[in-house]
Write a structure and sequence with these properties.
The chain has twelve helices and 24 strands. The protein has helices at residues 15-31, 138-143, 184-189, 194-201, 207-215, 233-238, 301-316, 334-342, 359-379, 386-397, 410-415, 506-511, and strands at residues 34-36, 49-51, 64-68, 75-76, 84-87, 93-95, 101-103, 106-114, 119-127, 134-137, 147-150, 154-158, 164-171, 174-181, 259-265, 278-284, 290-295, 322-325, 346-349, 430-434, 447-455, 462-466, 471-475, 478-481. The strands form five sheets. Strands 3, 4, 5, 8, 9, 10, 11, 12, 13 and 14 form a ten-stranded mixed beta sheet that branches. A five-stranded mixed beta sheet has the order 17-16-15-18-19, with helices on both faces. Strands 23-22-21-20-24 form a five-stranded antiparallel beta sheet. Strand 6 (93-95) and strand 7 form a beta hairpin. The longest helix is centred in the C-terminal third of the chain and has 21 residues, at 359-379.
Length: 512
C-alpha cells in the first residue's frame, strides 16, 4: 500500500515511486540497445523509445536503408538525401546503446530508388547528424496503410492493395531494404528535375498549377515538388503572353450539360496524320470538361455534334439545354437547326466580331494550341502530329487546375472522383512497345521502336506511332525513354524524329 513509508503516500500518488519507475525503464532500455528521447519541457515531457542496432555509430553504409520495427520515425544523418528539409536550431536528443547522444536537426522528405527502378518518397524523415545508418520505421509505414511482413531471410512491404512495393534481405540482425537514396545533387546533375519532367508530362503546364495539383491533392500519384524556376525551350517556342479579356469571378450556377460552349479551330497549315485540318471543341460550362473532334472539312460539324450529343446523353443521363457558338455557317445549317429544335436545344450565338461572348471555349482553344505547340517544339516533332498533340492537350487539361472550379479538376467535377496521373508520359517520347510472341520469330526483336503520341480513349493503353510503317497503334506493354531530346537518346545514339510530310498549302487544301 505504501512505497516510501511517509504517511499518506500511497503507491499510486507517490512521487518517489514514479521517479524510480522511470529510472528503471531508462536503464532497461539502454541495456537492451534502445535510445531514449530526453525529457524536455518543449516536447510535452514524453519519453519515446527507438530500437537501434549498436553498430549505428560504426557502420558507414551511407546510401542503404534498414527496416526497423522499433523505430518510431524514419531517420538519417545525411542532409544531402533530403528533397525538402525543415531545419530546426534546437531539437530533442536521441541516445544510442553506448550512451552517445545526437540532436534532431529537422524533418523532411527523401526520395528512395527501389531495385526495380521505381522512386518512392519517404515523408517526415528525422534528420539526425552523426548517425551512420538510415532507418525506415515500420510503425510509420503501417500508419500509411502499408503492410510489413518479416521472415527468417527477408522482409516484404506491401501497399493497401496487397501488392509488393519493396523487399529487403536480412543481414545479421537487421533487414536491409533493396533500395538506395538519391542525393539531391545527383538528380540535378541528370539534367531534369522532377518538376521539369512532370511539367512536360502535363503538356508544359505552368509551375503554379503543377504545385497546386500537388498541394491540394487534386490528383493521385503526383510526387512532391518545389517552387523553382523552370527554363523550358518548348514553352519559350510555343507560348506568347498577351493581355487577357476581363473575366467575371462570379461562378454561374449551372448544372452539368446545361450550357455547352463550342467552337471550330483551324484550318491548320499542315494536314494531320488522320487527314484533319480542323478541330471541333465542346466544353461544359459547369465542369469545364472538354471533348474534341477532328475534321477534314467544316461541313462535318453537324455529324460530330450528333455523335457528341448521343455520347453525353448515354454516359451521363443528361441532355444539352443550351449550345453557345459563334455565327459560323456550319452552326446555321438547316439540318443543324432542325435537329436542335427537335431535341429542344436552345442555340445561342455571339455578336459578330465579339468572340469574348464565347470566351470559355475561345480561351480553351488558345490554351490547347499553345500546349500542343509546346509539346511538338519540346520534342522536335513534325507539325503533322498536331492532332495527336491537341488530343493529348485536352486529356491533360481535363486533369489540370482551373480557377473557375477552385481546387477541383474538370475530371473530378464531372465524374466525382480524383483522376490518377501516375501513368502520364512526356508527349513525343521514345517508346518500345512489346511484340507478342505469336508475331515474332526466335531471334527477332521483342519490341518495336516507336513514338508516344497520346492516350487511348476507348481502352486503357498508350497510343504510339511507328516511324517505319507510318501508322499509329495501341499498346499497354511499353517502356519509355522520356529524357531523349535533340536527336540523341540516353545512350548517345542518334534518335531522329520523322518529318512525315511537307506543310500543305492553302491551294492544296481547296483542291482536296
Amino acid at each position: 500500500m505504501y512505497y516510501c513509508g511517509k504517511k499518506g503516500h500511497i503507491q499510486n500518488v507517490c512521487f518517489k515511486k514514479h521517479a524510480d519507475d522511470a529510472k528503471r525503464k531508462q536503464a532497461s532500455a539502454k541495456h537492451k540497445g534502445y535510445f531514449v528521447e530526453e525529457e524536455d519541457k518543449d516536447f510535452s515531457h514524453e519519453f519515446r523509445l527507438f530500437t537501434v542496432d549498436c553498430a549505428l555509430s560504426a557502420s558507414n553504409e551511407s546510401d542503404i536503408w534498414y527496416v526497423d520495427s522499433g523505430a518510431s520515425s524514419h531517420m538519417t544523418g545525411k542532409k544531402e538525401f533530403f528533397d525538402s528539409l525543415e531545419e530546426s536550431t534546437y531539437g530533442p536528443k536521441i541516445y544510442l546503446g553506448d550512451d552517445s547522444g545526437y540532436e534532431i536537426k529537422g524533418y523532411g522528405v527523401i526520395p528512395v530508388k527501389l531495385s526495380n527502378g521505381k522512386i518512392i518518397h519517404l515523408k517526415n524523415v528525422v534528420y539526425v547528424p552523426g548517425i551512420k545508418k538510415n532507418l525506415i520505421s515500420v510503425s510509420m509505414m503501417t500508419d500509411q496503410d502499408m503492410q510489413v511482413e518479416f521472415f527468417k531471410t527477408h522482409c516484404v512491404i506491401k501497399d493497401c492493395k496487397n501488392e509488393i512495393v519493396a523487399t529487403g534481405m536480412r543481414v545479421g540482425s537487421l533487414y536491409r531494404l533493396d533500395a538506395k537514396s538519391i542525393p539531391k545533387q545527383a538528380m540535378v546533375a541528370g539534367g531534369s528535375t522532377a518538376e521539369q519532367l512532370w511539367h512536360q508530362r502535363f503538356g508544359h503546364l505552368n509551375l503554379q498549377d503543377l504545385l497546386l495539383l500537388q498541394k491540394k491533392g487534386m490528383v493521385e500519384g503526383l510526387p512532391i515538388f518545389h517552387n523553382i524556376q523552370l527554363n523550358c525551350d518548348g514553352c519559350a517556342l510555343g507560348k506568347m503572353h498577351r493581355e487577357q479579356f476581363p473575366v467575371h469571378d462570379r461562378r454561374k450556377e449551372t448544372n452539368i450539360l446545361e450550357l455547352v460552349h463550342t467552337d471550330i479551330c483551324g484550318p491548320m497549315q499542315t494536314r494531320s496524320l488522320g487527314g484533319a485540318y480542323y478541330f471541333l471543341l465542346f466544353t461544359d460550362d459547369c465542369t469545364r470538361y472538354s471533348w474534341v473532334y477532328f475534321l477534314s472539312k467544316t461541313s462535318q460539324t453537324f455529324q460530330c455534334f450528333i455523335e457528341f450529343n448521343t455520347l453525353v446523353e448515354k454516359q451521363f443521363g443528361k441532355s444539352i439545354k443550351i449550345l453557345r457558338s459563334n455565327q459560323g455557317g456550319e452552326y446555321k445549317l438547316g439540318e443543324f437547326m432542325k435537329f436542335c429544335k427537335a431535341h429542344r436545344i436552345v442555340q445561342q450565338y455571339t455578336v459578330p466580331h465579339t468572340p469574348q461572348q464565347n470566351g470559355v471555349v475561345e480561351r480553351k482553344n488558345k490554351t490547347l494550341v499553345e500546349c500542343a505547340r509546346s509539346m511538338l517544339q519540346g520534342k522536335g516533332l513534325s507539325n503533322s502530329f498536331w492532332a495527336e498533340a491537341i488530343n493529348t492537350a485536352v486529356y491533360l487539361k481535363n486533369r489540370s487546375p482551373t480557377r473557375y472550379l477552385g481546387f477541383k479538376t474538370p475530371f473530378e467535377a464531372l465524374y466525382g472522383f480524383k483522376p490518377a496521373v501516375n501513368h502520364l508520359t512526356v508527349f513525343g517520347s521514345k517508346a518500345f512497345a512489346h511484340i507478342p510472341k505469336a508475331d515474332r520469330k526466335k531471334l527477332d526483336p521483342k519490341s518495336i521502336r516507336s513514338i508516344f503520341v497520346g492516350y487511348g480513349t476507348e481502352f486503357k493503353a498508350y497510343k504510339l506511332f511507328n516511324p517505319e510503317s507510318r501508322k499509329t497503334f495501341a499498346s499497354r506493354d511499353v517502356v519509355f525513354h522520356e529524357q531523349v531530346q535533340e536527336g540523341k537518346d540516353d545512350t548517345g545514339d542518334d534518335w531522329h524524329i520523322p518529318l512525315l510530310m511537307d506543310e500543305s498549302s492553302e491551294d492544296e487544301r481547296e483542291q482536296e
